């Protein structure tokens, strides 16, 4: 008795392997299980098949059996001898087998005379390939994806003589050839892609099937020309405000400069980098954005070099830069206090006072005024910026020269303008609904409205006349009309209300003239003031502990930089924005913060009786608050966002 070992993952597979190898039926197989593992990761089975010793009789019987074989895809059948059994063929899952023209569904006996036909199910699939080109809308990138669909090819496996045939099938896949570089370039050219083709990516597509979203071309972005820039030869970093450790911003640090000599280069114009033309994948040029021309001019005390790229000082003095223009102004330095010994100081250039300005003195500067000490019971006027390091007591500080008066003049004219416009609307309403008797003249109606609803008109007219005198404009037509037809019993001289429209037009013209004559805004930087008037055509910056019972007026913004700085009593008025720290006091002292209707007011801490004013409207804070933001909404109502202190 002979034995043979078979191993596989399961007992069933071991048996199947043995029956195929030995060419005997399962029921005729004699075996013994040697090993069987059924683990999660490892499965193994081993059987020992007992081979009976064939005697001459059994060999004779075996030789009588019919057999069937496959060679090169063709089926051959040998008939059995007398007493032998015929060969058998079994149906196959993926193969159509016909015996004598009939498709078999079960095991069938076959002979050499049997007509056996095999065929595979019809498959109309043909190998194909697709190349998809995706050009981005901006025509700056192109991606390609390829897809290869194969055709399945089936083949019958050869088999030696067996008595019972189970046909096995081999499956192969037939693909179209890969795209070559010429084909890909041709496809890109057809869709207009001619620039920025990436050779390495094209080669990648020729080596591997089924590529997805491969970048094959990329345009060249244009590089904008960089603006020319100015290299300053004086001062510190002019493009950044200074900030200390506590977060306090030095709004005036940007203007710090030093004295220079005649012939010094104070600025140089440097050329920015040239731009580069781009190109999209279709080969279309993409122009770069040209740089804006910078303003580079000499205004006063300096000149532009012949080459046009340098500003050179023509005098000894102090340089400054505003709106693209360079200035060099002479400096008058007072090494001591300004007092009776020095007399009042009046100088067309910059003034630097090393000491204090004592009682009763006056300083008038045509440019920046710097006072390192205190100012007491005195007056400081400057057409340029004012910087005062010491305390200001019982004094008047005007930054911007006569512009401060012009600004007040403009503000009063503007309020009078809007008041007259409102009055005209009221007159039209009264006439529309016939709210007064027919015998009432327009002059009487205007007089009644001024006396009842527009009581601020006489006061505004008085202010305008006062400022007109200071502006040497007292005898103008506007002033004469205000005195004749608006003040006192003047309205009774008006025959028709359209005369108010004429006054409105004259006010608009006057405002335009005054605005056109304003100089560049001047800023004031101080530490502390008390019982004083401070006015500026630009910003007012408090660097120290703030103000007490003073009138502060700015044609732009007012900032209190130092944390805890106070604004206690008086009136603080700005055109656009006020940023204060502590306003008022626990004793509820009245303090007014005023801006135009479009302005904003920010306060760290505001006590009761803080008044927030927007144009002619006011709102009084009734409870101490923190993190206050006040503004006027779209309906013209004052809004005060705050947290309870």
Automatic annotation (TrEMBL):
Transmembrane segments: none
Organism of derivation: Clostridium algidicarnis
Residues annotated as domain RNA-binding protein KhpB N-terminal: 5-52
Pfam families: FapA, FapA_N, Jag_N
InterPro entries: FapA, FapA_b_solenoid, FapA_N, KhpB_N
Top-level taxon of the source organism: Bacteria
Protein name: DUF342 domain-containing protein
């Amino acid at each position: 008795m002979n034995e043979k070992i078979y191993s596989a993952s399961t007992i069933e597979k071991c048996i199947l392997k043995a029956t195929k190898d030995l060419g005997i039926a399962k029921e005729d197989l004699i075996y013994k299980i040697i090993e069987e593992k059924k683990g999660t990761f490892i499965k193994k089975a081993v059987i020992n098949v007992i081979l009976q010793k064939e005697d001459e009789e059994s060999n004779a019987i075996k030789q009588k059996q019919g057999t069937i074989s496959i060679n090169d895809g063709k089926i051959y059948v040998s008939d059995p001898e007398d007493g032998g059994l015929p060969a058998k063929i079994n149906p196959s899952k993926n193969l159509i087998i016909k015996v004598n023209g009939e498709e078999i569904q079960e095991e069938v006996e076959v002979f050499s005379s049997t007509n056996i036909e095999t065929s595979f199910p019809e498959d109309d699939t043909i190998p194909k390939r697709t190349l998809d080109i995706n050009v981005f809308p901006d025509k700056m990138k192109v991606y390609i994806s390829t897809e290869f669909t194969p055709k399945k090819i089936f083949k019958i496996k050869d088999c030696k003589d067996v008595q019972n045939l189970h046909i096995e099938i081999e499956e192969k896949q037939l693909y179209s050839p890969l795209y070559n570089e010429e084909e890909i370039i041709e496809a890109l050219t057809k869709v207009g892609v001619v620039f920025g083709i990436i050779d390495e990516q094209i080669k990648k597509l020729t080596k591997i099937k089924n590529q997805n979203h491969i970048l094959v071309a990329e345009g060249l972005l244009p590089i904008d020309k960089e603006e020319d820039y100015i290299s300053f030869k004086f001062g510190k970093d002019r493009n950044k405000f200074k900030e200390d450790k506590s977060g306090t911003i030095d709004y005036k640090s940007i203007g710090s400069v030093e004295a220079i000599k005649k012939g010094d280069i104070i600025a140089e114009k440097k050329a920015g980098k040239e731009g580069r033309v781009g190109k999209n994948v279709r080969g279309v040029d993409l122009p770069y954005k040209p740089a804006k021309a910078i303003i580079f001019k000499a205004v006063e005390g300096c000149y532009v070099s012949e080459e046009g790229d340098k500003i050179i000082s023509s005098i000894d003095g102090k340089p400054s830069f505003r709106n693209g223009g360079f200035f060099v102004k002479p400096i008058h330095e007072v090494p001591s206090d300004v007092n009776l010994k020095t007399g009042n100081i009046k100088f067309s250039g910059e003034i630097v006072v090393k000491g204090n300005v004592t009682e009763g003195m006056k300083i008038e500067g045509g440019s920046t005024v710097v006072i390192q000490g205190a100012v007491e019971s005195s007056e400081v006027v400057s057409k340029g910026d004012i910087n005062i390091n010491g305390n200001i007591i019982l004094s008047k500080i005007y930054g911007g020269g006569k512009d401060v008066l012009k600004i007040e003049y403009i503000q009063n004219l503007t309020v009078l303008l809007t008041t007259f416009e409102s009055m005209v609307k009221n007159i039209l309403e009264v006439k529309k609904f016939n709210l007064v008797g027919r015998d009432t003249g327009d002059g009487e109606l205007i007089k009644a409205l001024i006396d009842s609803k527009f009581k601020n008109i006489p006061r505004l007219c008085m202010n305008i006349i006062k400022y007109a005198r200071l502006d040497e404009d007292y005898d103008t037509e506007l002033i004469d009309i205000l005195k004749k037809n608006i003040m006192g019993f003047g309205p009774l001289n008006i025959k028709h209300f359209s005369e108010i429209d004429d006054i409105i037009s004259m006010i608009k013209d006057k405002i335009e003239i005054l605005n056109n004559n304003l100089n560049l805004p001047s800023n004031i930087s101080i530490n502390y003031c008390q019982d004083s008037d401070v006015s500026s055509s630009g910003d007012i910056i408090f660097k120290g502990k703030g103000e007490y019972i003073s009138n502060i007026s700015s044609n732009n913004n007012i900032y209190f930089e130092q944390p805890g700085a106070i604004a206690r009593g008086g009136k603080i008025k700005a055109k656009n924005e006020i940023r204060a720290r502590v306003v008022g006091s626990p004793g509820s002292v009245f303090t007014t913060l005023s801006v135009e209707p479009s302005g904003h007011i920010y306060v760290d801490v505001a006590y009761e009786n803080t008044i927030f004013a927007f144009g002619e409207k006011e709102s009084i804070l009734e409870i101490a608050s923190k993190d206050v933001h006040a503004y006027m909404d779209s309906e013209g109502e004052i809004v005060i966002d705050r947290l309870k202190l």
